[in-house]
# Entry
Amino acid sequence: MALSIKRKHAEMDEKEEQNGINEHDLSSRTELPAPTTECPYTIEFPSLLKQRKRKSKGGASEEQEYEHSPFSEDLDVNYVIRPHSLWSANKKYRNFVVGEETFGVNDFVFVNHADVPHGTPLPTTEERQFWIARVLEVRAADQQHVYLRVFWVYWPDDLPGGAQDYHGKHELVVSNHMEIIDAMTVAGKADVSHWVEEDDETDQTFTELYWRQTFNYVTQNLSDLRPRCVCKQPYNPDKFLIGCSNKGCKLWLHTDCVLDDVLTRVSERLVGDTNGHDSKTRGKGGRGRKSLQKDPHKSYEGLFEAQISQEDEEGTVDRVIVTDIRTTEEGAPAPSWAEDIICLNCHKEIK
# Structure
């Protein structure tokens, strides 16, 4: 993302649209004070009902408004802006400009909340130093007071329950958490795509930001994801899925589940019941060390390790390479061998 944000001014143009709608482009350059996160507006969520803006007996709109979510109808929300009269008095705009970059309604944007020097090129900055938001509305009182009503987009670590095992490195979670922010806190555009999981999907590699899950800020509910494998847990796209090749099954399996099954079978075959096992394992330089904090359900810990064999040009995985890490003669290489992959669903060999 070759983008440099100078963030020294916003551009405004009071030119009205030909259709007469009171929405403008921000295009005339005006110097602004240093960016600030201070904002005179707050948002309340008085109701969970999905209803349109109600009218009072006098015919005037009540303060409660309704936002139809661009992500999911489950995120539609009623809200109230305080002070409502001050916000309503601001003019509505289609877009705004920070530095050399133009932003508009429906854009995903990086929002600066850390000590990142203004004008720092985004490619040289860690993305997670920024918040991410979806712009819903742009309003301004004048050139020095431009505000954005946004839906926040969460990094998984920022969710109430934190990141889960299925969350990928570049994964985001969209929400209906609405706030109003100063436009000058925007650091640049964020390229965010929507990933819709399909039935016949194979493993993928995601190098750009994406979302597939929603978080309802009002109800604190996190949406469910498509279950995978025999464990019925979601898929982490940063890891492989292994598809069963047997007709009538074709189930996609988590790599971690497959490796766990292989290691369990190897441990039972070569060692037997290892619950409470306290043997030494290979350490740095071949020195032995005691195995600590073992998972009682993984009898192979400290005894064997495994990894998926090298893929061929078509991305086929056919074997698991197991390594015996039990103590051997110092300096001797740990023995390794290949094990077949057995489907965890149909219990047939995957070829």
Remarks:
- Helices lie at 84-89, 255-270.
- The first strand starts at residue 9 and ends at 12.
- The chain has two helices and 24 strands.
- The two ends are 41 Å apart (CA to CA).
